[in-house]
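Q: I'm writing up a methods section and want to include an example of the input and output format. Could you take the sequence below and give the corresponding predicted structure tokens, formatted cleanly so I can copy it straight into the document?
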Amino acid sequence: MSNIVSEPLRGQALFDRIWKFALRRLLIPLCGLAPFAYFFPKIALFYIACGLYDVSRNHGLKLSTLRRYFIGNGFLLWLLSPINVVLDLLSLPYINKGVYRLEDLPPDHQKEVRRLIQVTNEADLVHQVEERAKQHKRAMFFWRSYGVKVDTIVNVPGFDEPWNYVKTIGLSVFNKKITTSPHFGWLRPTLRLLYNINDIKDKSAYIVVGDKTHYWCEDKLFIFDDTLLHVSANETDQLRYCMFVDILRPSHFPRIMSAVVAVEGYLNKTFKLISYSGWTLVERQ
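A: Here is the clean output for your methods example:
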């Protein structure tokens, strides 16, 4: 773990921290949500019901999780909760497990994941992106984003093959001693698949989803619903390279799921949403 210790805030710095916290956590929610609930009580009750269902899926639910969801960085997820509820219904009878093993997916999904892993292992990506990646705290490379091919700095022909279920193929690189804050994804027409491609030797690199901690030194593959609260950490003295993949959720309505993914891609491209998530997108210049 990191040995960095921050000194206690005093004077004006302490006042600024308290004021910003009160503004973000109390004043803005009260001034925005309370009037909405007063004038539109039925809509407010509907959103409360959707939000309570949505956030209750987090195992090991804590008060801090509720705070983050309703008035923190999960607020957008709450706004989108009715859409996510519909996506959950469209996925039945495939129950959302939250955290998956590869064997939990249908055979065709498993086949594509295994093919993607094989292509990845043959590509020697660490050697090809190392010089560019180490310049950033968190770097992201894409070959396919929300179903659309991307021209990136490293050519991997296998990633350009047709994929029925794989919608995003990326590589996330965490520099040394980098940890994200707890955060939520936004929509769940897909599952997030992470595959660690370099060898991690101890438990200082991991991902936490709810009450489950997954260590990359124990298993290189991890599949989960990224709209659950999660934290990724690399407290090692080496870079951590993980394939960053979105795979379509099992459903009897794959075209609807794919359509939602396409809308996600359009919004992400239009508003450059990845830039708000702390990543540096490495593109071909």
